[in-house]
Amino acid sequence: MIITIDGPAGAGKSSVARELAARLGFRFLDTGAMYRTVALAVLRRQMDWHDMPAVVEVARAIRLDLDEQGVYLDGENVSDAIRATEVSEVVHFVADHPTVRELLVEQQRRIASAGNYVTEGRDQGTVAFPNADCKFYLTACPEERAERRWRELQARGDVISLEQVLRQQNERDHRDQSRTVGRLVAADDAWEVCTDGMTAEHVVHHLEQTVRERCKLGVASNACSSGSPGGASTSSSRE
Ligand code: DC
Q1: Closest Cα to atom 11, ligand 1: which residue?
Q2: How many angstroms separate the CA atoms of 112 and 28, rounded?
Q3: In the sheet that 64-67 helps form, which strands lie side by side, from edge to edge?
Q4: pTM greater than 0.85 (yes/no)
Q5: Cα(232) to centroid of ligand 1, in Å?
Q6: Which of 125, 142, 120, 134 is nearest to 210 (CA)?
Q7: Which of 70, 199, 202, 206 has the most CB atoms in a 10 Å sphere around its CB?
Q8: pLDDT tens digits, residue range 96-133?
Q9: Ligand 1 lining (C-beta closer than 6 Å)
Q10: What are the residue boundaries of the structural domains of the chain, listed by start?
Q11: Can you tell me which atom of ligand 1 is nearest the CA of 124?
């Protein structure tokens, strides 16, 4: 079974997807980490970002593995290294390239064919897994997403203003929405969840309930008995 979670940066997809997978007993696939790992490999080789054939060669040549502990580049755990600002600044070069996307989508399908997965990214419900059993599209207003991200960066000790975070986020949104292949868009059959004003726990609970009802998975032993959480705004063409 495959559950996809797509949405813009800062919508809280990663933590929600990871926790949802844990509650369902599924594995979690962070596809953004895959693009980041290719970008890190290119950065380490100090290559020219405009030499795209060479960048594609790197994407083909590296060994990229993922497990519950993180993501590995040629056997090295690079889970922290891929979160560096230098990687975030260049990852769009690899995410924008159709051949790199093809390679990574192929790998995502291979990985997910081995079990039950919650996959998270931008194109999971549209390109990678159009036949997924349950698709979600998580959103939140730009200001709320930027504030969440800003708080994370503050906690990490990064000095950056909220305005700067919002500006960078707007640029990323624009890039994610306008790439020619795998652009950020909700699948027609995705459940859209606006997470404004919701805690991560609230969102996970809402998604878990939806999956259990829609996919007839049954009720979790620790499920809340009060039904659907208030404040969750969910819409889908399925409704
Ligand atoms: O979610 P993230 O910030 O870790 O993603 C890193 C980059 O990869 C970002 O530029 C969006 C892109 N991405 C993508 O194009 N398709 C995906 N399925 C996942 C991420």
Answers
A1: 32
A2: 9
A3: 64-67, 70-73, 76-77
A4: yes
A5: 25
A6: 134
A7: 206
A8: 999 999 999 999 999 999 999 999 999 999 999 999 99
A9: 9, 31-32, 35-36, 91-92, 95, 121-124, 176, 182
A10: 2-225
A11: 18
